[in-house]
Each structure stands twice: as structure tokens, then as C-alpha cells.
From TrEMBL:
GO terms for molecular function: 5'-(N(7)-methylguanosine 5'-triphospho)-[mRNA] hydrolase activity; IDP phosphatase activity; phosphodiesterase decapping endonuclease activity; snoRNA binding. This is U8 snoRNA-decapping enzyme. InterPro entries: NUDIX_hydrolase-like_dom_sf, NUDIX_hydrolase_CS, NUDIX_hydrolase_dom, NudT16. It catalyses: IDP + H2O = IMP + phosphate + H(+); a 5'-end (N(7)-methyl 5'-triphosphoguanosine)-ribonucleoside in mRNA + H2O = N(7)-methyl-GDP + a 5'-end phospho-ribonucleoside in mRNA + 2 H(+); dIDP + H2O = dIMP + phosphate + H(+).
Amino acid sequence: MAGDGATQVEHMSEEVKGESQDNTWGWLESTAHAADFCPTEDHAVVPHDTPMKEGYLLAAHCMIYALDDSVVFNLYCRRAAVLMHMRFDGYLGFPGGLVDTGEEIIPALNRELHEEMNLDLTRFQVKHEDHVISHENAKNRVICHFYALCVSLAEFEEIERAALASKEHGHEVLGHIRVPLYVMGDGYRGFPTFLDNNFCGNARSQLLTSLKQRNILPESIINAALAATKKYVPASS
Ligand SMILES: O=c1[nH]cnc2c1ncn2[C@H]1C[C@H](O)[C@@H](COP(=O)(O)OP(=O)(O)O)O1
């Protein structure tokens, strides 16, 4: 989180505190634009060492995952446990955040992973080789770097449990969630339904790219799930 939110709210006048409960942005205004949903056509792939641009924000996020070929409900292969979270603004996103002025990208990401996930940095750290993709999102004026950290299933479960004790749990992060990667009988529930949620910035595209790049889901299943989105069919019909 850029700035110390709690301290800033404490120092607000009563009038501003009232306003901030009344649909205004308050001190969150300076970064709110960067969280708008970003469709694929609005962001371009850029190199990891792309230079910063005047007026842009720099962000880094990470998908923590474990391969898991177990079967759920005796029906669906889980394929992987993939961690995302429900953010304070109601969007789904990945752990990570803004790179502060003067900070390097990867240390900033590891700092955010500790703040948001309580990640034990003596055991798990994102490294350069975990890089998946970087985007320039001109509409939201943000450069987003994305990484994927593969751990064992036992480590994943440990990380998930520890995350409940993170500094940001209940503040910036309202819940840690797993992504359902299977498609159910109606062709919609499961992964396609998940993709119909509201995602922060280009988080949805980061998810799809990582699933493909890390060979978690074949492109054909990703494309079929995308084609099924927004096509809710009642189970009884
Ligand atoms: O998961 C994400 N994928 C892509 N972009 C994201 C994601 N989550 C947030 N963002 C964008 C929009 C935000 O304004 C900036 C900074 O991220 P955030 O996690 O909110 O940063 P702080 O924790 O506030 O530093 O990136």
C-alpha cells in the first residue's frame, strides 16, 4: 500500500473522515485509476527493463501456486492450487503492489508479499527467473510486472494458512482465495464463472498468461473457458 493508510486517516479532519465514508476517494484518489479493469486491447507487453514513464505508477504482483493433480468431488482434476485475493476495493487481484520511489522491483514485490501474505521471506522469495510478463497499461498509466512462484502443495497450504496473520489481512486484503480451474457440467460453472468476476487492472490477463506459460492449463481449455464467460445457464434448464 502506498503510504500508511491508518496514519493518514487518523490525521484527517472529521469532515474528510465523514466524506470518505460517503463515496469519495479521499487519500486513495491518487492511485484509484490504476485499478480499473484493463481489457487486453488496453495493455501492451513490454520488456522487464522497460524505463519508467512520467506520470506512471510502477507495480509488481505475483501468482503463488502449486501443481495438484488430485480430483475434487470425484469429478474434476484440480490441476493446481492458485492463490488470488479479494481486495479492499471489491476487485480480485494478486498479492503485490506499488514499487516505491528508489526501490528495486523484486525487493518491493517481496516486501509486499510479506505485508499482504505474511510470506516467510527466509524460505520463499520471488526471484528474477520467476518473471512471467510485463505490461504497459497506457489507459491506467501503470507499468505492471508479473511473476509466478511455484511451491509444493504442502508449502502452498502453509503459505495460505500463514496469510491469515498478515498485517494487511482484513484491511487491504479481505480474503485469500483459490481459483477453480475445472469446468462443470453446464460448461459455465467453475473456471468460466470465476473469469466473470471483476478483476483489478490486468489481473485476469496475468492469470491466463501464467496458466498457459506454466503449463497448468492448455490453451484450448483457456479459450473454451473464455468463450463460455457471460453465458450463465440455469442448472434446471
Ligand atoms: O493483481 C493485479 N494485477 C495487475 N495490476 C494490479 C493488481 N492488483 C493491483 N493492480 C494495479 C492497480 C493498483 O493501483 C496498482 C498497485 O497495486 P496494489 O496492490 O493496489 O498496490 P498497493 O498494495 O496499494 O501498493 O496495481
